[in-house]
Amino acid sequence: MSIVIQNLKEAINGESNAKRKYELYAEKAKEENLPEVADLFEAISSAEAIHIKNHIRALKVLTNKDVKIEQFVEVNEHDLKQNLKDTKANLIDAINGETYETKKMYKNFVKSSKKEGSEVAELSFSLARKAEKVHAKLFSIYLKLLENNKPIEKRKIFVCQICGNVEFEAPPSVCPICEHSQKFFKQY
Ligand SMILES: [Fe+2]
Ligand SMILES: [Fe+2]
What we know:
Layout: H1 3-31, H2 35-63, H3 77-82, H4 87-116, H5 119-147, E1 157-160, E2 166-168, E3 185-187
Antiparallel strand pairs: 1-2, 1-3
The structure holds fe (ii) ion (2 copies).
One fe (ii) ion binds next to helix 2 and helix 5.
């Protein structure tokens, strides 16, 4: 199996776990009466779903067959719930995960797809990589507010349906990551 196909499967598994984890983190934030943090976790969870969709599309193109994600995706609900901590710790975990994906995982995956000349995978990985960087930044903003006991204001959150970029307050006229127009942003 080519490295790129292996990497796509690993990315789909990682994103599936992140997506579910953020849903659980959102529930926890609601329990702690932090609805704004819950909104951010939910919005970013939906952004991970876009990465999953893009990676599956790339995998289909490369393998020329239907993708059965249950063959390589394992989301261990029990473990995810077991590892659930308070919202501050959950934010730190999320920042670590996003940073790992940006600086290590997707960085390497982009490199190997270039080497294999797989443009479809390279695009999917590099869009995800740039979006994860934004996710880490937004989680960090909220963590800082929490750590300084500052209130977190309610913000409008927009998610680019093409690349999973997330923007506060208003969608940009053009997505800075995938260059699609404003109309591809959905308010979360
Ligand atoms: Fe992310
Ligand atoms: Fe985008």
